[in-house]
Amino acid sequence: xxxxxxxxxxxxxxxxxxxxxxxxxxxxxxxxxxxxxxxxxxxxxxxxxxxxxxxxxxxxxxxxxxxxxxxxxxxxxxxxxxxxxxxxxxxxxxxxxxxxxxxxxxxxxxxxxxxxxxxxxxxxxxxxxxxxxxxxxxx
Length: 139
What we know:
4-stranded antiparallel beta sheet
């Protein structure tokens, strides 16, 4: 009976340790990254490494030159498509929440159509102001 109680206690401690252990944020597979100035890099990632049109979720991760995530404060991202012919320009803004890891932000956007977009990223916070822009294809 004692062996059963000890085994049960050890299992409980293992579960508790796992639940209370260090929290890391899974950022997924990087789709694209770019320098932002201030010696930082920003990476756009999704769970499967594919940006999809419609309602989509992704992460933005800001890192320093050693690859360590860096808190940049307030972030903004707009998926921009310039005017083409009679079609007006499109701007699909993302909303963000912070994660347990400073420098990693969870984003959501409703990307109107499958096509190539310009990801226009800005930030303003402890590291100063910065921006990045790169082409990304939504499928």
